[in-house]
Amino acid sequence: MRQQRMLIPTQRDVPGDAEAASHRLMLRAGLIRQLSSGIYSYLPLGLKALQHIQAIVREEMDAAGAQEMLMPALHPAELWKASGRWDVYGPELMRLEDRHGREFALGATHEEVITSLVKDEIHSYKKLPVTLYQIQTKYRDERRPRFGLLRGREFLMKDAYSFDRTDSGLDDSYTSMYNAYVRIFTRCGLKFRAVEADSGAIGGTDTHEFMALADIGEDTIVHCPSCQYAANLEKAVGRIPQLAESLDTNNDSAVSELVKTHTPGVSTIKQLGQFFKQSPAQIIKSIALEADGTPVIVLLRGDYELNEVKLKQAIGAENVTLLSEDGILKLGSTPGFIGPIGLQNVKIIADVSIYGMKNAIVGANEPDYHLLHVDLHRDLPGLTFQDVHNVAEGELCSHCGNELSFAKGIELGHVFKLGTKYSRSLGATFSNENGVTEPIIMGCYGIGVSRVLAAVIEQHYDEQGILWPETLAPFSIHLLTVHVHDEMQMKLSQDIYTSLQNAGYSVLWDDRDERPGVKFNDSDLLGFPLRITVGKKANEQMIECKERRSGKQYELMANQLLSHCQSFFQSGGISNHE
């Protein structure tokens, strides 16, 4: 393609609200343009890169035995109501009515639609197993779209769904998709981890997220450097070292009697620590919540944070919110001074972080008062302990005992074992070998295709611009003619352009009438793997090559170029040229 004819609106400056490197570079390189908050147009270069990702996804999905199809983006509300997700999914689901007042949703995901389709088309065990997938635009009304393509309201997604007769069949389908994902993200040039995860509103069990490691990531990955354990923060489980011993401030078993102490205006963990000159680890914070309409008090060590996902699973709740001030007063307590001792008719959930605590500090359920020297065994007998906290620095791996590490990540894909969650609610069944009707067993597997594009750039850039992996680069080679009015330079450029295209390489020829500095800067910004410059030595048939990733520059005779390109790209963009 000749660059003077191509829409590549590069920019020096970008809007100040472009926080992520990928967002800034995609705007500067002319890959995308924003239409509205969280909604983007893909310009020619951006679309080319996106199409390369889609091609890799299709190849690996097809190799795994999945079949491509395409489903509607507009979903009747009754399907979502039948599955129970019309209310559960919340405000992120974009809802609308047609002219007849019928309710619809713009597809955020397609479990309901695919299950309804399979219900009508598959009735016998002889048609199973089958895996179907699509690559399609999805819609979610994000509260705060940000980071360009990393969190948008409209995005491209690959979603696949497997249908099996047995649990062991689902295991096979899940493993096949898991392995396909490993190959996809590897071919895209990403550094990633597969981590244990929570299924969220989609439901299911045995889920894994595939996370690209990146500082801009909104998800926290907890992993063990010594073994293969990895999970996102919502799911991660650790082991608190020397639990009871480290929490006894006297380092012995002696416990004093309860003392109610006046603490005027002291209501936060930080204030309590300063007031009593105690570590937050010696304070038990009481969090008043409402779980599906029922008050719940959660007890946590003062330096730990509540994990809402773990709590929901522990008590079997769909929705958890903070209890209102009126609700706290009805419990016989007061906001800011809640404590577990003396409360009646309220469920108390104790986190494992407070197990064995002695001489602890809790709220006294009276304004401006706290209780000192609390012994959980003595003062709160019968407590049961559950893990409802976020794993924190210093915790140990529950698998091998070594200290856990933390990293930031971008979610690229998610695989779920759905079981019969949707097939039962929507009536998707089959007749087995004995003629007995059973629910189809399902799995689902999603990849954020447009998010992969942004994640790749987050991991592959430098101060000058993008460093495309060869597999995704919009063009493999950038051919630059320094002076387009020089007849020898244009003739040699045309010859090189033609020979490279005939050899099967994708080439962008910068034949613009621009200053050399502009061309070189744009070329570094666009970041194609290999740049070929035709300049003042054209009359000698001499050209200059620059490898974008390594920065190597060297001269070649024009008749050496094809063999050099073959060697360069066969070696994955790493040459031995001196």
UniProtKB/TrEMBL annotation:
The keyword Ligase applies. It is an enzyme of class 6 (ligase). It is found in: Cytoplasm. One of its GO terms (molecular function) is proline-tRNA ligase activity. GO terms for cellular component: cytosol. Gene3D superfamilies: Anticodon-binding domain, Bira Bifunctional Protein, Domain 2. Its EC number is 6.1.1.15. CDD domains: ProRS-INS, ProRS_anticodon_short, ProRS_core_prok. HAMAP family: Pro_tRNA_synth_type1. Catalyzes the attachment of proline to tRNA(Pro) in a two-step reaction: proline is first activated by ATP to form Pro-AMP and then transferred to the acceptor end of tRNA(Pro). As ProRS can inadvertently accommodate and process non-cognate amino acids such as alanine and cysteine, to avoid such errors it has two additional distinct editing activities against alanine. One activity is designated as 'pretransfer' editing and involves the tRNA(Pro)-independent hydrolysis of activated Ala-AMP. Homodimer. This is Proline--tRNA ligase. It comes from Paenibacillus ferrarius.
